[in-house]
Amino acid sequence: MAITLQKLLEAGEERLALELILGGEHLGRHIGEKALNRPGLALTGFFQYFAQRRLQVFGLSEFTYLKSLSPAEREKRLRAVFEKDVPAMIIARNRNPLPELRALAEEYGVPLFRTAMITSRFINECTLLIEELTAPRDRIQGTMLEIMGIGVLLQGKAGIGKSETALSLIERGYSLVADDITEVIRKSAGRVVAYANELTRYHMEIRGVGIVHVPSLFGVASIRRETTLDLVINLHTYENDAEEDRTGILPSDIDVLGVKFPYYALPVSPGRDMANIVEVTALNHKLKLLGHDAAKELDEKVMETFLRKAKK
């Protein structure tokens, strides 16, 4: 997913100390690639592997080289770069743009930016920001919690008891990330991070009570700004004739942003302590990550006993 220069400026004005010098009417231009490029070789006339779809960053070495040229030669070298239709130019170390650079940016309609950061740090931070802005994301129904370092998404129909279960878990010392609606974004290496919408962050709706501010009631330890998604639990109405998984040997999974996560369907019925069951589900998942799968171990023991008796 490509992003516009306008979106980059809005997201990076403070984080990247990014300042627009000229070209505000052209901020609708798209950034073609996530990585950034330093046009050092291009300024010498070598364009065989020039990354023209990337943002072009002028650091100390590029500036020093350009200043060593005559004004006419400088204009010639820079024009060759602008003719490649690059998305934008960014000057590092808060330097003032050379007259030729400013004039050509206006002529070709290429936005010109400046940052106070040193070149290497800016390239690293800007690359990370572009990765975040272009990462797959979604908004899904569910309440997000962190239980012993495990990110748990509670789903279910309205009124099933998601917020009430989450409230009980918060009272036990666990942390709320988002209530009712959870934002998710897929980071590198298949990691999905969950967080709350900025407007509703740290708030919960409890039926019959209304909106509550969680950290005011339970302290700052009761909330997390974001957490990695590890498993999904669906709370559903208990049905007598429904077939429920009683062993957990063949676990289900669910797809979130192209990544598979363990999926548990927990029946809700009167008198059933759902907070306790959700807690156990999360802790059991943590044990599986550590290599201890109770269901498989029991199954292996049963099979060993059966085979041993069959041989007698």
Give the gist of this structure.
The protein has 312 residues and is of the alpha/beta class. Helix content is 34%, strand content 28%.
Helical content stands at 25-40%
In round numbers, the mean pLDDT is 90
The total tally of domains equals 2
CATH class of the largest domain: Alpha Beta
Shape: elongated
Radius of gyration: 28 Å
Strand order of the largest sheet: 11-9-10-17-19-18
User: Can you write the helix and strand succession as a string?
Assistant: EHEEEHEHHEHEHEEEHEEEEEHEEEEHH
Number of helices: 10
Supply the CATH architecture of the largest domain.
3-Layer(aba) Sandwich
Quote the CATH topology of the largest domain. Rossmann fold
Q: Structural class of the helix and strand makeup?
A: alpha/beta
What is the percentage of strand-forming residues? 25-35%
Quaternary structure state of the chains depicted: single chain
The CATH superfamily of the largest domain is known as P-loop containing nucleotide triphosphate hydrolases
The main β sheet shows up as: 6 strands, mixed
Poorly predicted segments: none
Number of β-strand runs? 19
Report the end-to-end length measured between terminal Cα atoms.
65 Å
Molecular structure report:
Strand 6, helix 5 and strand 7 form a beta-alpha-beta unit. This protein is 34% helix and 28% strand. It folds into 2 domains: 3-134, HprK N-terminal domain-like (Udp-n-acetylmuramoylalanyl-d-glutamate--2,6- Diaminopimelate Ligase, Chain: A, domain 1, 3-Layer(aba) Sandwich); 137-293, P-loop containing nucleotide triphosphate hydrolases (Rossmann fold), CATH 3.40.50. Helix 1 (5-12) packs across helix 6 and helix 4 (71-82) runs parallel beside helix 5 (99-108). 26% of the residues are buried. The chain is built from 10 helices and 19 strands. Strands 11-9-10-17-19-18 form a 6-stranded mixed beta sheet. With 312 residues, it is of the alpha/beta class. The chain has helices spanning 5-12, 40-43, 60-67, 71-82, 99-108, 119-134, 162-171, 214-218, 274-289, 294-311; strands spanning 3-4, 18-22, 30-31, 36-37, 55-58, 89-91, 112-115, 137-141, 143-147, 150-156, 175-178, 181-186, 192-195, 203-206, 210-213, 226-228, 231-237, 252-256, 259-268.
